[in-house]
């Protein structure tokens, strides 16, 4: 009896997983850029990471000297 109830539970879980995947329609994108834009629009960025990103974009970065100048100095 226990085996039958476990089996039916597993079947129910599989059916639920299948119905979940069929609800999500496959989308085709014209380019990789459109795919990335779509993904970015649906992805929630945590506030801490968004703040760090804003801060890093506001900081001016000093240009590094060329590799050959660093090598000779």
Q: Please describe the biggest sheet, giving its number of strands, its sense, and whether it closes into a barrel.
A: none
Bin the strand percentage: under 5%
Give the helix level as a range of percent: 55-70%
- Please give the number of β-strands: 0
Number of helices: 4
- What coarse outline follows from CA principal-axis ratios? elongated
Termini separation: 81 Å
The value of Rg in angstroms is: 26 Å
Which class best fits the helix and strand makeup?
Answer: mainly alpha
Layout of helices and strands:
Elements: H1 2-23, H2 32-42, H3 47-58, H4 67-72
What descriptors fit this protein?
4 helices; 0% strand; 73 residues
Question: What does the model show?
Answer:
By secondary structure, the chain is mainly alpha-helical. 70% of the residues lie in helices and 0% in strands. The longest helix has 22 residues, at 2-23.
What's this entry about, in short?
Helix content is 70%, strand content 0%. By secondary structure, the chain is mainly alpha-helical. It is elongated and about 75 Å long.
């Amino acid at each position: 009896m226990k085996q039958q109830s476990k089996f039916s539970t597993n079947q129910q879980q599989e059916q639920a997983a299948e119905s979940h995947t069929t609800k999500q329609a496959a989308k085709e994108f014209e380019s990789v850029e459109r795919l990335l834009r779509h993904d970015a629009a649906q992805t929630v960025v945590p506030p801490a990471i968004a703040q760090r990103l804003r801060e890093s974009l506001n900081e001016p970065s000093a240009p590094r000297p060329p590799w050959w100048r660093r090598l000779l100095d």
